[in-house]
Each structure stands twice: as C-alpha cells, then as structure tokens.
Amino acid sequence: MAKFQPNPTAVDFRPIQEHYFHSSAPTPRGSDQTLTGPSDSRAQIQCRFFQQGRCRNGDSCPYLHVKDATSNDRLRSTSNKTHAASTQEKASRTIGSALVHYGLGALVEDISLPSDFSTIQISDLPQDITKDYVLDLLRSHNIDTPVEPEVRIIHKPDISSALVKARDPEFAKTAARKLSLQNTSLVVQGKKPTATPVQNHIKSDSSTLRVDCCKVHISWHKPSKTVWLNFGNEGIARRVDNNFRAEKYKILDQIVQCNGPTRGGTPRNPLAWTVRLTGVPAPATESDIQASIIHQADKPRGIQLGRPTYTDDDETCSAKVKSLFTSIGPLDWWEFTPDTTGKRMNASARFQIEDDAREAATLLNKTPLPFNRSAKLTVQLVHMVKFKVHVKVYEAVQVQLKANIRAWKAAHLTYVAYPDSNPPKWYRVLKLEGEEEKQVAKAQDTISQIISGVVAKYDHSTLWHPALRKNGVLFEQLSQIEQRNGIAIVRNKVKSQLQLYGPQKACDISQVEIAKMIRDESSQHFDIQLNEHEFSWALRGGLRSIEKRLGSEKVVFDITPTPKRITIIGTAKDYDIATSLVDGKVEACVETKIQGDQDCSVCWNGAEDPIHTQCGHVYCLDCFENLCFSAMTKDTITSISCVGESGNCSKTMGLTELQEHLSSSSFEDLLEESFNSYVRHNLTVFRYCPSADCGYIYRSNAVPRIQICPKCHVHVCTACQAQHGTMSCGDYKDKLTGGLEASEKWKQENGIKECPVCKTPIEKVDGCNHMSCPCGRHICWVCLKTFPVSRECYDHMTKTHNGIGLE
C-alpha cells in the first residue's frame, strides 16, 4: 500500500499555484519536524483544524501547527456567535422534494431541489485524506464549480472515500469523465482512485417534528481484574463455583464471571483446586473477596489478586474519550455520568451537526479504548424527537399517550413530558428517545396522530359558524360540550374549523352535539370593510360605540387583513345599525383610548392565554397563531410582523420568537404554508407535479428537459409543463392541436376540470363543492371561481349557489 503524502504532487497532479505563498522560512513545529518541501509554503498558513483541536493529520499536515490561544478563543467565540445567530433566525425544512431555507418573519429565502445538485463519490483514496486534498484534486483536473462544493470524507480502515456535492446538475458527469482520464501513480491496496456519480439526497438541517440524530450514547467497561481462589477440596471449589454462577455470591455487590474449578495441584500439594474469577471490580481487596463468600465452610485457603485492566481515574478516562468525539466535530455538550453500581461508565454527547454524530457512531463504535487497548468503546446513535403541545391539548390526550408507555419501554424507548422552559407555561414538551430508528419513527407517528386531533365534521361537512370567532353564547355552548365529554376543542379562525382532541368515541359524540348546536344557531355574519378614515374612526372610539349599541359578543374587530374589517355576528338589523354608525361617523371625534395594556393587539379584548412579544405587545395565544397564518394567505409574499400599536409596530418576528409562541405542529404548518405561498407567487420558476395529490415541485426551464417526479414517477417536461414522454414539445403541440376537441370532450365526459390559476387537472370524487389545489387556491367546483382561503369559498357557495353542494 502506498503511503499517503501531504504534497499532492506525489500523485501526479499539481495544485493551482495562486492558492499558496512562496517562503523559505522554517516551520516552528519542532526540532524533529521535517519540511514539506521548498516549493510548498503552506507551512506558513495556520491550520484551522489544529486551532480547533480537530486536525487528524498530525505531523504529516502541511499547514502550520502553533498553539494560539487568542486565535482559538476568537474562533470559538465566532463559532458560537455564528451558531447562535443561525439557530435563532435561520431554519431549513425538507418539504416534498425541496430543501426550503427560511429567515426572519418565516419568509422563504431559498429553495434547493435535488435536481439543482449532483454528487460524485471518489473511492479508493488514502486513509488520511483531507478536504483540501480532494479540492486540489478537482482543481488539478480543471473541474470548477460556481461555489466551493460540499466535501464529506468517509474514513475506513486503511482506505477512505469522499462524497463531493456541488450546486451544478452537470458537475458529477463532468467530474467523473475528467477524473477517469487521470494518470495517477497513487495506488491504495492495489487500486487506483475511481469516481462515480451517485444518487443525490437533500436533507433538512433541522426540524422540530423530524427525528433528530445529533446525540450519541457512549459506554465502556470500568477497570476490572482477575482473582484466583485456592481450595484444598474439589467439592468446596465446585460449590463456590456454583454459587458465583448462580449470583448468590457477589463482590462489592457486582456479578462476576467464574471459570473453574481446575486442578492446580503440585507434587507437594496434590489436592489443590483453583477457581478463577474475572470481571472483578478493580477496587476489590482480599477482604472484599473473603466477605463475598458468605458461608464459612466455603472460604478459600488462599486468594491471589491480579492487576487491574487500567489505572486511570474516572475523570481522566472521560476526558480521553471526549477528545475522540471532539476530533470528529464540535459538540453542543458532553455529559459524563459515572455509575456506582453497574459495570460500565456512561456518557452522552450532542453534536452540532447530525452528520458528525453519525460518523462518530460509525467510526468509534467497537474501537479500542485509549487507556485500555484490549477493551472496546460502545457508541450508539440516539434518535430523538420533541413535540410542543398546548397544556389544554395535552390534558385531553394524556390518557391516550400513557396507554402506549408500556409498549415504548418494551421497545427500549424513553418518553418524558415536562413543562416548556419558556414562560408563560402554556405548553408541555413531549420527548421521545431511542437507539432504534424504526422504533422511534413508529412511536413518533403514534404521538403525531394523537396530538393532531381531528377536524370537526358532520356528513362530510366541516363544522363552523362565524359566531365562534367571538367568545359569545355559541362559544359558551362549545365550552360546555368540551367539558361534558372530556375533550379539548381549539378554534382555527383562519381555516374556519374546529380541531378536536381526545378519545375517538368522545370526539364522535362531540361532533354530533356541535352539529346540532350550529343548526340551532340563527345568527348570521356580515363583514364591514374599513377604509383608512373609517379605521381611524374605529380606533378613536367608533368600535366601542358599535359594541355599546349591539353588545361586544356581536362585534369582531380584525386588523390583520387588508382592508381591515369589523364583522357583525347577528341579524340583518344589527348589521344595518353598525353600517349606519360607520357611515355617519357617529362619535367620530371621541378621543377614547379603547385598548388597554393587557388587551390583545388583534381582537382588542382582554388577552386570553396572553403572550408577550419581544417588542412589548400582547396577544391572545389563539389570535397570535391566526395572525401568523393570515400572513400566508395574502396576495403578496408577506413576512409575519407585529400589529401592535393599532398596526403601526410592524416589527418582523424572528423564527425563535415564532417557535416559542406556537405549538410544534403549528410552527411546522406555518413554515409549510410559507413555502406554499412562495411557490404560489413564483409559478414561473416552480411548478407542482401535475399528478393529483402529489405535492412535489420542480424547477421550470427555458430549455426542455424531462423531470421524473421522485414520488409518483410521472415524466414532466420542465419547459411546457406537459406529460409528453420522449416526444418533443413541438410534436406534442401538433398532436394536441389535432386532438384538442376530443381531449376536451373526454374531460367533460369524465368530469375533469382545470385549476384556473395553474391549470392542474382536478376531479371531484365525493363531498362538497369546495376544492383545494396544490397551488394554494380554494376553488368553487360549480363556477371555478378561486379564493385565497376556504372560508371565503364556503361563503361564496352559500350565497351564490344556495349551498355547498351536499345533498
């Protein structure tokens, strides 16, 4: 096997000269350190991996190794600040086939698709290969990328490989072709490096509801020794042997292994028998051995103690093991938990990057201990998922959750529920951990299903009434149903629906009662849209004048939409009174402060389950969630901003603040809605797969290219967005022109219509006339009129078509 040389010229390729400086200064690593060569002046450049304590090349590294406390502190400080900033205001999620990057206000900053990238695997490389070596190899073969590619080194015994991913669809083909022509003298185990394009995967950096794999469990054996017991009688020796095997005899309360008895007699002592004990705790003394043999008749004639397997103390061992993990990647934390009763030392570590944790589990598991080469280290990757749910929801479903705990324990999973660390305590955090990924994923699905609840429906119709937007009589009746049946009911005012949480039977009973309650409700709702002057009038006392005349339970004030509006829940007469007050500007000059310090910034009533934003404004927990989702239904891409101070605050909210005040499922739904809104407003750049209910997106191209959907495997032309297989766009159009009449006739006969916005085919199978398209529009099946939210679609169907289409 060829020994790896740090100088790339040893394998017949030369790095680009501009990357290095010429210098004849000696390297200060030590008197026994040799120079890398007069032409290689990298010795003057500090090795950043050495500064972080992560350089694996040791003395063979061509870069400068000098302890620089200031530089090290600066690197650590910068790293911490960067990590804190990135985790606070940056996030990424995998949605369908896309990796979506988010910034302030939950706005989409970038979308990456698998087709944007290509990946190559370079195999049969030297064991101590580095990222810089791989990049130099690419440059020496004139393989350039617009941005420095992502390089992942995979170390194996005596040989390594590298995965190189670049944001260039043609990179892998080009690199494989050029590298296949290389004339290299590098041979590793009789093989030359090979380059092969591999399947490209995109993974999310982080997700609250995704299984997190940044943590590892670590353990190793405590120091032990061997002990020999000498007996003059075979019967006694066998009895002691049996008692140790039956665990009746223990040393320092520890079970030990017994190997014997064996005949160990000599001519001077022909009756001697020996019982050998292994795994004896290192601190055990001769007195401890004697004490462990309870029966006096079983006491040995002699005891011989062997040497311990190692002598390092617990903290020293912990530090040495920890260094193995920090050499792979930066840690968020390290926890050493000595076990005074068991035979093993235990520790846990959490990496900042998931790939580092996976690499640590692969590379370090079953490797020799640094302080005991005959013993092995055990490293297990921990799969963890967290859920944040409202206290009200948790109390309704905790019986269903607890019913699964026994099965989770049997699957070696750990489940805990604890209060959220961020006040106020409106949430509970559910955490699930385990070493078996499939078991964790299965339990995760169970929890997700339980805490997702069900949408209240009756005869396929969603149950909702506009009066539920206000805490009036109808809401009181809903609360009574909730308490009577032992469930939780959450209003979603943006989607105009009720979410029920609790046992299935109780939810079924509640849906029947809610349907009857809504049928018996005679009130209607009327929207009054406010222009700028009318809104100003409402703020200066007009709203209170309407509430005084009609009652506060009939008036809903909403400043989140554009234009802002007052909704009247009552009779047509109530609506006429309200409009006359608005039109006549009665009490328009009343300078009354109608919002108190503890009033919600959205509904202007006393905040229910109040939350406080960083800019100092108050919201009902429910109103805050509705505010977030309403931003995603507007006609333009809008970030989530505070509407405090009568809508004048406008401070954009960070992702940390949004995640703090929303449940896990709501936060993830919000990011997905932001993604859908972004795609909906960029249909010239992105397109949804034309297959019904697929949801995957692809990037439109001016140059025709066939995109194969990774989910439904449909072939789509990214230029004309048609499914014409290997046929050219021109031929397809010619064929389509001749058969257009037949195509339209077939659609009519089979009840197929197209979305007026994105032209996606839609088909009604059953249910009401409300249709939702992947592009985000809500469609009336009867007249194909589109709406941004479902509530407006239902209102339209009721008023225009005298119903929603259910018999």
TrEMBL record:
One GO MF term attached to the UniProt entry: ubiquitin binding
Zn finger (C3H1-type) start-end: 41-68
Cross-referenced PROSITE patterns: TRIAD, ZF_C3H1, ZF_RING_2, ZINC_FINGER_C2H2_1
Record-annotated C3H1-type domain positions: 41-68
Keywords from the UniProt entry: Metal-binding, Repeat, Transferase, Ubl conjugation pathway, Zinc, Zinc-finger
GO aspect biological process, one term: proteasome-mediated ubiquitin-dependent protein catabolic process
InterPro entries: IBR_dom, LUBAC_E3_Ligases, TRIAD_supradom, Znf_C2H2_type, Znf_CCCH, Znf_CCCH_sf, Znf_RING, Znf_RING/FYVE/PHD
Segments forming domain RING-type: 596-807, 600-642
PANTHER family with a match to the protein in the record: RING-TYPE DOMAIN-CONTAINING PROTEIN, UBIQUITIN CONJUGATING ENZYME 7 INTERACTING PROTEIN-RELATED
Name of the protein: RING-type E3 ubiquitin transferase
Organism of provenance: Daldinia eschscholtzii
Species classification: Eukaryota, Fungi, Dikarya, Ascomycota, Pezizomycotina
